Fold each of these.
Amino acid sequence: MGHRLVDLALLIQTIANSIVAGSIYAVIAVGLAMAFGVMKMANFAHGEFFMAGAYVVYVFYALLGWPFPIAVLMAVPIVGAMGIITERLIFRPTRSNVLAGFMATAGLAFILQVLVGQAWGVGLMRSVPTPYMGAADILGAKIGWQRVLVVPVAIVMLSCLWYFLFKVKYGKALRACAQDPDTARLQGIGINKMTMLAMGISGASAGLAGALMAPIHPVTPYMGHGVILTAFIVVVMGGMESIAGAVLAAVLLGFIHTFVTTLSDAVTAQMVGVACMAIILIVRPEGLLGRVKA
Amino acid sequence: MSLLEIKDLVKRFGGLAAVNGVNLSISDSEIRGVIGPNGAGKTTLFNLISGALSVTSGTITFNGQVVSGKRPSHIALAGLVRTFQRNAMFPTYSVLENVVLARHSQVKNNVFQTIFGRNQEEEEHRERAKEIIHFMELSDHQDELAENLSHGHQRILGIANALAVEPKLIMLDEPVAGLNPTETKMVTDHFRRLRDEWKITVVLVEHDMRTVMETCEYISVINFGKLLMEGNPEEVANDKRVIEAYLGSDDYDL
Amino acid sequence: MSIPNWKPLFLLAVVIAVGCAIPFMVRAYTIEIFILFMINLILVCSYRIPATTGDWSLSHVVLMGVGAYTTALLSKWFDLTIFLTVPLSAVVAGIVGFIMVTPLIRTRGFGFFIASFALGELIRLIWIKFRYPFGGPRGMIGIPNGELGSIDFFEPMPYYYFVMAVALICLIIMYRIDQSRIGKTFTALYTDEGLAESVGIDVPRYRALAFGLGAFFAGIAGALLAHRLGAVDPKNFDVTTMVYLIIWIVVGGTTTFWGPIMGLILMTFIFEWSRPLLEWRPLLFGGTLIFFLVFLPGGLDDLFFKIRNKIMARKSGAGVSDVAS
């Protein structure tokens, strides 16, 4: 099988695809990791938030004809608000029990699928026209501009997030809360505000990822299914609550998925991903970058 | 011959040695106290012996069998049973059910016999459980839910649960912590009877010196993860090093 | 003590009598619903076994699928009768369960939940990946319905009685496990793991046993399902199906043996009554799941328990407070 990779162009193509995949995984997974870091909110409906982001672009760009960048930006506040509502109605009352919140958001996933399906149709795949046609030529590898776009957006988004967490007062408070909620409370940080903020950012990042992917991913009410599995693999590999770990694991999984898909097939790639997740959970539950808690 | 033999036991957490080369030998049918000020390493030592923590180095031999590195349940089956500082009982079960459940390890039935059999054996275990409850003077409360018992009785039930395993040695972790004087007496009165009537070796790991002085015949004092001295209660009470150790930790309450 | 307890025996007789009468009172379509209901009954009760040790898994329907695929392979390739495929599928699912749980034991709570999901998904991907022998993404078809002499189980009525007999046997065994020393050990080790270890209960071994037993009975449910549908499809055992199983369990509660059964009965009624809602139904189910987790975390089981306690407290009045002091 390996002889196909000897082809240099194919190798570059695969690496480029890996980077694109890793970037999109990172944008999806940081939100999941952030919500889990603050008060252990495990959001099963994260994939449906991604789906919601794609539908925002479908509505504003494909149906109403707004410019594509504006439509993408619309997804951020809309899906972010969904995250905040989820925190208020589901995660807050089930705060003492991680599993309960996780299972309840599985119920939320059902609800969102039905609502979107009823509003815009279940069976038909919604197609969103590609705003940026043509392909970039990188050292002989051809990648559609729409895919290339994902990489700078991911970098900008992660940089903004980093700036927020380390330089802005609210972001610092959020980190303090993730590390030690009890001490944070003593310092006068409102835990409820922080969990809402975390879920808001979490939803916004999922929405942004979905919005970016809308033109190149089949848009259906059930598109969250595949996403949630990938997102959880990434977050588990990164250590559940570590944002840096999630980014690293996202890039790693992007490479693993893309290379295994190229060498073998997509199902095998999924199997490798799932196996990685199981092995890490069992052998090193704190993840690649996670710290062992005393 | 000693029943429990501890040799050069070390436990490190990161760089910190909580237990740093302890040697201890406890003979059959002793009532032994292990004391020390807060943070001396008593609890760590206790958890090492019972298997709740893994040892860094050294060996623990019980009844001629090396038990260091074994699961807590295996150590219990070997005849070395611990109690807990908190109330060691299954709160939503009755007193009798608690002891029957704790006798689990003595049941020889396998899964299929348990599911399909007629459970003659379980009747016998129920009888033995009643004997233990009677011995611990809990018969009046046999059918009460464990969570409804008084604190003192809950503590005694914890010991009854440990007895259900038919131990040779019972190791008690601060058995009277948080009890009032009446309850304390009620609990400690049982220790001597355990040894005298049932020939069970009793090891009392305690913070409160008064209890230990009154019940134990021989006492080992631990400080800074090491054995400080050993002797009978009088020797310990008059030992300058012991007094200093307790003074230094500012919880001197002799 | 030695007087046989007639109450449960009487109850059992009533259930059997009603169960036998049902096919004569309803249409063939409704018999199918009852068949599915009894298969699900085995499934929910089997899920409760590991759940009593605190191990909520996300791979239970995959283990059911292991039973279904084993049945499909055994009856298509070796022409085995249904009376062999069902127990053999259970054994295979039980063994797969044991193999799966060996690494899983190292995890607890949420970690167990998603790690079991990962391993379950791995099994499902194996079915999808290998067209030979598992049929690939579209699964396998043409599984015989089974027969007893000249009675063809393709007809709903005979299969109904067959499933009823199997379900009764399974439920009685699972009830006996729950009431036995082993079942009590399961709940005890969940209540206090440290105490359980201290009295000589090997906690990992018992957790593995609970998971294996759950897988065994899930395998039976899978085998019965495969014979009825005549087909297995990897999509039938995906996470969506798993969420439905979780809904039954959450609605019912796991405190007693009857909890999951109550949950399944209620949700089956709601499922059948809500047919006119068509595609809106998952919304109803998702909403129910959220409602129970937020407002009734112990499920119906816990609700009944609390109501009964309140009535008892009112009846005995001052007597209760005396005992408590």
Amino acid sequence: MTRTFDPADAQLQTQTLLEKIQSYTGPPISVMEVCGTHTVAVARMGLRPLLPQGVKLISGPGCPVCVTPVETFDKAIYLVEKGVILATYGDAMRVPGTRTTLADARANGGRVEPVYSALDAVKLAKANPDDQVVFLGLGFETTSPTAAHAIMVAGRENLENFSVLCAHKALLPAMEALVADPQMEIGAFLCPGHATMVIGSDVYKPFCEAHRLPCVVTGFEAQDVLLGLLWILRQAKEGRAEVENAYPRAVDAQGNVGAMKMLATVFRPADARFRGIGVLPGGGYELKEEFAHFDAETRFLAGVEVESREPAGCMCAEVLRGRIEPSQCPLFAKTCTAENPVGACMVSSEGACGAHYRYRGV
Amino acid sequence: MDRITKSHGGGGAHMRALISDIFKSKFGNPELDKLNDFAAVTLPTNRIALSTDSFVVEPWEFPGGNIGDLAICGTVNDVAMSGAKPLYLTAGFILPEGFLISDLEKIVDAMALRAEEAGVVIVSGDTKVVDPGSGPFINTAGVGVIETELEIAGSSAKDGDAVIITGHVGSHGIAVLSKRESIGFGTEVLSDVAPLSGLIAALVDDGLELHVLRDPTRGGVAEALNEIASQSGVEIEIDDNLIPMEQGVLSACELLGYDPLHIANEGCALVILPADQAERALEVMKTQRYGVHATIIGKVSDGAPRVTAKTLLGSRRLVDSPSGELLPRIC
Amino acid sequence: MCVAVPGKIVSIDEFDMAVVDFGGTTREVSLAMVEDPATGEYVIVHAGFALHKVNSEEALETIELMRQALDDSNF
């Protein structure tokens, strides 16, 4: 591993940063960690119980699996039952659809292949020329350019049997929706390091100015998270609201221009349903007309109605908006556990419920 | 003939040839050589440990070993975790039609070597041939003699005990996962598959007051510790940062989103005993080939039956059992 | 949101695919989204794609930010 910080110093560095955070005397503030990987890092290092009075960390909607609506999984399962080979990230395997999960569909004889990369799905299509391979693409702007690239590769190679069921989401519209929610009291955003690596930290500037909210981009090692939070608290104390980058080894102002270009070549912004948040204008991506041949919706799902409903009693919707803590859901750690998840937020270990459950404090 | 056919499982001349050419020639010992449907053996004590395990690892060959290594070490270790000295094993093979006989020989060679290393004798066996498509599968059963008065069991962990892991964590699971086609990554990590009978015998013979021995196979260290906490009704607290593991295991876990505590092991054991004997236990372990990386990773206390880990910031969090199949994650 | 880890480019083929070493774990990674990658350089990889080239100045900048934060006697 190419660690930035010497593990030998971790104890001292994290303790020093924590002490600084704990000495915060500014106004009370709720900080949303937008990104699920931050949620996991926060839970794993046991930060929440150590925060000073008045400082609250709210887990946001940045878990791609969690914000993918139940009908997407129902569609994927429908395709599996129709005989396609469905390739997707391991994260999606155990997410409950209305009736069942992709993992169960596989146990029932369906062909579902967990992959690590969209290009692995293209490989699968090449290796199985007599089968249709559908790649269920999930994720924000970190991941969506990789799906775009896979589609371009499939196009170059004239692969007739590869297509994408697109559930890719856009980060900024999700953040806008959270701020627009009158029930939300977000005082600052801890912005996702890796999505920002692609979209660039400048993207937050108009957002930050319009809403007067500190936006600090940071990474995922314990020191990164603590530094990001410290900077947010410093802004809050000094009454500033700026975009700051605490993750310069991965993030710059412009982001990965090539990746964004690739994204724009294949996809165009579209309204998209977020689980728990509803339909957000420009909240996701769909394939452009010239790539319709690679769109599983067009090819296999035109006119198909799948019956979808969210699980009864599940409060993922409220959790995703940061309105309640996972432990405030009546199902949490009772009928909804990591072993038998009811809602999507419990399935992914970076989902708010999953992270809170797996690393719940004692 | 270079492949397994149905006739190898059919009870005729082919089967007799397979038994004498491969199994007898490689496992040969007086009891097996009698070719009875049973083995009759004499045991030095009347307190024995029995165990059986089936091996279905896919792919059957992986960095650091093959299914044959697992079939011997897995059962030897299960028997040894009672504090027993494993003595005799049986082996049942379920082979797919078309399986290369040269591959079977590789498997049987590995078994013969491991049996010798572990000091056990394979005294009875069986072969079946099934339609191609999956396998090979192996079942082994083992018997060992318990010569200690100790009641070594998952329910014996007590307040004030120390928790030791005898070796690096996660190597077996990572070695096997690296060969799964849909994930496909390269690693220098080799499976840790090894018989622990010698290591355990050294601890028993030293007179240490062993409370619990457990090999953290499927489900990894997290699963094994949760089982022990629940069986013994105690709280087990570990320090994440003390868990010994190879760099390659850590980096594979970071890349693919696995938790090292959830990864299977085949050559290390959790040893729980009174804290004041922990240092002596470490000394003994370090004289053994499979104990050189032994480390104290935690302690047992009275409390709710659960496993907790000290976090980097000094707070504590729960350590849960893994939930099902290990899948690569991108988020 | 996204697991991404830094690794070192070990070799590159003519299709912009590389073998990247993550410290004892190697994986095939697409370099289609980074400019002028070279063997020996460090990249941050997500879902099988290099998305950012790490240069030593940026890495030092991070360490410097951390040093400042730790040394800063004020909040």
